[in-house]
Amino acid sequence: MRPAPRTAAGAAAAAAVRGAGLGLRRELLTPLAAVEPGAISFLEVAPENWMALGGRLGKQFRACTERFPFVAHGLSLSLGSTAPLDEAFVRQLKHFLDDHGIADYSEHLSWCSDDGHLYDLAPIPFTLEAVRHVAARIVLVQDILERRIAVENISYYAAPGQRISELAFINAVIDEAGCDLLLDVNNIHVNSINHGYDAAGFLDGLPLHRVRYLHVAGHYVEAPDLRIDSHGADVIDPVWALLARAYGRCGPLPTLLERDFNIPPLPDLLGEIEQIRRLQSAVTTAAPTTLAARG
Asked: Which domains, and CATH codes, for the chain?
């Protein structure tokens, strides 16, 4: 099945979730069992970490998918790799998504494998040749999954082989593949420091009418001109401000709080989720400038 045809405006497919969500980590399984579902709008899972689990953890995960809406965010599809796409894995992924009723799937606009996995997300060279290569792989993934997927703008620390701008690359991939954008505002902030560009201008140049949902996270300050995308700290004010700007342009789309390391008690994470909700509530339906383009 081909991805859903694009409208004339190229509108994004609406996410199956709403509100403010949290990335699921094993440390959170027990405290989440005591949380009212309304405290967290949805959870996000990395399928690779859960697809093969059974026993106690598998039962706990199933209990979560029965209580909360879910989205899935992949780690190992390696869309930019020159190695053949692992179609067997994509079919296993489809079974996992279908089995747990997960409609939304996203991946990083990166590569992480060749003959084996690198366990890191490396930037794809910003070239027109890479645009065609990656877009073809995304189309194939969408065919197998029978879903229109979203790709995430990544953080990166070098741009080997660059021939076009990062903005041109992202826009071209999304247009040619007919997919959507998972907008990570922390990655924009991190990259703006590391590569010396204006974060607000970069945000405004993205295909905002194709945003499915958003990510927000904290990072590590290595040096005045170097930020590390760690997901191991609280979200800082400039990133909150960039998220508010995104809502002003896109509307209060679903937003996921990422926290992978130094995970604090769940009530602390719920406080950041409430901050997301406050920013979402501050946006009126009349304010966004790109809502009409979403169709």
From this structure: 20-294 (3.20.20.150)
